[in-house]
Design goal:
By secondary structure, the chain is α/β, with parallel strands linked by helices. The chain folds into 2 domains: 242 residues, Aspartate Aminotransferase, domain 2 (3-Layer(aba) Sandwich), CATH 3.40.640.10; 127 residues, Aspartate Aminotransferase, domain 1 (Alpha-Beta Complex), CATH 3.90.1150. The chain is built from 13 helices and 12 strands. It has a 7-stranded mixed β-sheet, sandwiched between helices. The protein has a 5-stranded mixed β-sheet with strand order 8-9-12-11-10. Helix 2 runs parallel beside helix 8. The structure holds pyridoxal-5'-phosphate.
Length: 384
């Protein structure tokens, strides 16, 4: 009888939790060392060992991190960057004068700002569409469209875009679809399997999860010539993530599923609690059945609707006051960390933003939900 161990097929949550699992032969250490070397000695034949030559194109810690990310997203490959914006700029660097790119008119403001910058400086054509209008994306794409960039849920008004539908529309004109999945990582949405060609994530947020790294990730459905061009741009521009950040990122991913579930269940409770509050005009959260994108969110967010909520207050002053009066929430930008953050969004996006000046963006963390509810209640009382 064959006594060799039966190979178990492990679920993504297990693979993530055991991501740094490694037993060192000599010492028994159960997590791997961080590989900090910036250069790699060639072998007797003058060849690179395992393709490692120079850290700007990635060393062992970077490659391990990328293998984990590609595995979780179900992609052929992954690349890690020094920040989310470094990854975004790398993708947009492939666009030439006359190329057309389509994106929502509300989304992470850094992407809109860079698109408008390359429209002015490089002659790239940009169409921003209203993601709340049903036919807006199909009206926006055309034969010269090279790239459709979407985000779901969209920051900071949490509109939900049907990724499978967007992929069909994008591919009908021969363009590539990039999905910013920062708010809906692979633990809840598998954007590549829904038809995206590339998934982008600011790993500064949920993937890292502890507000202690800036990091960006791209994963691809196919490691084709376009992917090779992106790899080349990253190497030449030196946008790669540092090894220490990569190690911290993997450590963060070990608790991703747990943190995301807790942030999502906390956020749902908070959204339900404040939904009909007399001092709040509107609670925007895709997990609420009243949210216009709830049905699509249910279809493509399988394991929680994120910790991201926006509150529309009665006026700008109240929004400003609540962000100052909270005691448990921290008044700071960013999202996806274990600690809850609140921000008066207009302060970050600036005067060109079309986001309402009454909007408070909440990133719900993993604290006790009752403490977070009590904190907003006391801030509302004080704001009057
Ligand atoms: C949805 C989204 N995309 C992209 C970015 C940019 O990422 P980074 O700040 O890591 O450069 C952010 C950062 O706030 C974001 O929230």
């Amino acid at each position: 009888m064959d006594r060799s161990p039966r190979q178990l097929k492990l679920a993504p949550a297990t693979r993530a939790a055991q991501a740094l699992r490694h037993i060192d032969e000599k010492t028994g250490a159960v997590t791997p060392a961080i590989e900090l070397s910036s250069t790699y000695a060639r072998d007797d034949q003058g060849e690179g060992r395992q393709d490692y030559i120079y850290a700007r194109s990635g060393g062992p810690t970077i490659k391990t991190t990328e293998a984990l990310l590609a595995d979780l997203d179900g992609g052929e490959d992954a690349m890690v960057f020094a920040s989310g914006m470094a990854a975004i700029v790398t993708v947009l660097e492939t666009l030439r004068a006359g190329d057309h790119v389509v994106a929502p008119n509300v989304m992470y403001h850094g992407v809109i700002n860079w698109l408008l910058h390359i429209e002015q400086t490089r002659g790239v054509k940009v169409t921003l569409f209203d993601a709340t209008m049903p036919a807006a994306l199909s009206d926006a794409v055309r034969a010269e469209t090279k790239l459709v960039w979407i985000e779901s849920p969209i920051n900071p008004n949490w509109d939900v875009i049907d990724i499978a539908e967007a992929a069909k529309i994008t591919h009908s004109v021969g363009a590539r679809l990039v999905v910013d999945s920062t708010v809906a990582p692979a633990c809840t949405t598998k954007a590549l399997s829904l038809g995206a060609d590339l998934v982008f994530q600011s790993a500064t947020k949920y993937l890292g999860g502890h507000s202690d790294i800036t990091a960006g990730v791209l994963t691809c459905a196919k490691a084709d010539e376009f992917w090779a061009e992106l790899q080349n741009i990253r190497t030449l521009t030196g946008n790669v993530m540092a090894a220490f950040e990569a190690w911290l990122l993997v450590r963060g991913i070990r608790t991703l599923f747990l943190r995301y579930e807790r942030a999502s269940s906390n956020a749902l409770r908070i959204a339900q609690h404040f939904e009909n509050h007399p001092k709040i005009d509107k609670v925007i959260y895709p997990g609420l059945p009243s949210h216009p994108g709830h049905a699509i969110a249910r279809k493509q967010m399988k394991n929680g609707f994120s910790g991201m909520i926006s509150l529309l207050m009665k006026n700008r002053q109240t929004a400003h006051d609540i962000s100052r009066f909270v005691q448990v929430f921290i008044n700071a930008t960013s999202l996806g960390g274990v600690e809850s953050l609140i921000e008066h969004r207009i302060k970050v996006e600036g005067p060109n933003s079309i986001v309402p000046d009454t909007l408070l963006r909440l990133s719900i963390g993993i604290e006790d939900a009752d403490d977070l509810i009590a904190d907003i209640e006391q801030a509302l009382e004080r704001a009057g």
